[in-house]
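Course assignment 3, question 2. Fill in each field.
Student: A.L.
Task: Predict the tertiary structure for the chain below.
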Amino acid sequence: MRPTATLLLLALAAWLATLAAAGTAAMAAFTALPKMGLAVAGTEDFFASDPAEMGRYAAGRMLAPVFLTADWIQFACSAVAVGCTVRMARLGAFAGHRAARLALFAAVAVAALLLAFHAWRAPGMNADLLAYWQAIAAGDREAAAAAKSAFDAAHRVADGGFRATLVAVLVAIAAFPAALVPGARHHEGTR
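Answer field:
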């Protein structure tokens, strides 16, 4: 059972690292690029009156592949974490405190469900983002504003889900040792 426990912990740690890396990259890019006054070729006329928005556009274009990669890594980590948790629970490998076991099960389930919800909503959000980029390229301000408004609304929901997933994975990692290892009372009762 030790390899499964190790795999579970590695999956949770990789999931946390992926969330942290994507979040840190987003905070850095969306904070720095709008202040740099940079110009993105082909969009100068569209953003002439709002260089900060051009910086946000550049950050979004730059980070889109990073976010897509982070999603795929999360899907893999989630599948491994759920699979290992279920296997260990079925085999009775969690001998730790009941509250820790429940916290681990709930946190893994919540994180996986939040990721599934994100996967369900992501295609629509990505379509809105692509429509925004295409409207910018075409110089269509009205279409760009409509697509950006739709994307921003979906992004607020996605950001909340991202933060909640991060908390759930942190809780799972924190609960893991206490869920796995029998407590002192359990050892005393077996003497």
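Instructor remarks: Residues 98-138 form the longest helix (41 residues). The helical segments are 2-32, 51-90, 98-138, 141-180, 184-189.
Grade: pending
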